[in-house]
Please model this.
Amino acid sequence: MAPVMPLPVSSPMTAFPQPDAAWLDNFQEKLLTWFAANRRPLPWRQDYQPYHIWISEVMLQQTQMERGVAYFRRWISRFPDVAAVAAADRDELLKYWEGLGYYSRLDNLRRAAQALIERHGGTLPDNLEELQRLPGIGQYTAAAIASIAFGRDVALVDANVTRLLARLFDLEQPLYDQAGRRLVENIATALLPSGQARDYNQALMELGALLCAPKRPRCLACSLNRLCLAQKHGTATLRPKPRRAIVKTNLPMAAAVLVHDGHVLLRQRPAKGMWAGLWEFPGLILGPDQDAAALAEEVRHLIGVDVVLEKLARIEHHHTRYRVLLDGYFCHLSTQPQKTPDRCRWVKVEELAAYALSAGHRRLAGLIPPAVAPRK
Ligand code: SF4
Model:
């Protein structure tokens, strides 16, 4: 059995064990060799186009890898380059983004694409400073593009990297505050092999995702296990120290699926705020004493018709800060609506799929009875 590598030397200045040259060589060699043999064949890894790296990074900040790959493929087939994004209608972009959430990021993406056309001829700049001047491109995304697309020597730290480094050095301190984040960035930078940032950053993230899993790290299969202090101390599942959970507020809402003559009423949300610009079935946020009667009143106010609402389902879905409790109701109108309010549109039921809906309303759309909503 190979011996555990000698402990690196601690430094009070940086508060993490400083690796010596032999340890560092060994670590880099093991990590990069593992990555070369185990990297997943992700679509943006074919040629590392900067535009592809940008889109994949923004999408993967919001969803799991498998789902992100599906979104990425669909997006790239419709918007193959920066120019296509800059020229696209927001509603169409929204349709391709539907389900990813964080819709303000989509607006930033579009504004950044337009800025790239105006300032950089439609190509992404290769340095952190200029990348960070683009709307919505913060330090992390800029570092990802600079290192993975352009090979710049910039370390990248995400949740997978934080977990892996916390275990590698058996770090007890909190890592999700400012000081903790800086510490992990310093470690990631200190371990970076010059000129190999593309593979190094991806290798740390990949190993963190595939082997150094949050609850069940696969230490026996891990090529770093002889170097890993948490593995040696039996503390892997205790690292990193968990962050405080975000307490979400319940947000009770109600919405009415109003069907008339094969059409359903949709309302577009305002351009700013939660679910900006998405379409939804008309409804409201319920106050403490409100129920379906308040929704019926809202409908009467909107289309000038009294309705009898039939409960479809309660749908729970999550927003960054809220747990949305959406009560969905159904009404097949027999009387002609008196008016079509602002931002509202009667659309054919079978054309609902062409509209970008929030996750909760998309699930509600799937509950429309087939008898009144013949599907293709
Ligand atoms: S040995 Fe285990 S805890 Fe250490 S880096 Fe590998 S998977 Fe993570």
User: Anything to note?
Assistant: The chain is about 40% helix and 15% strand. The chain has two domains: 9-238, 249-365.
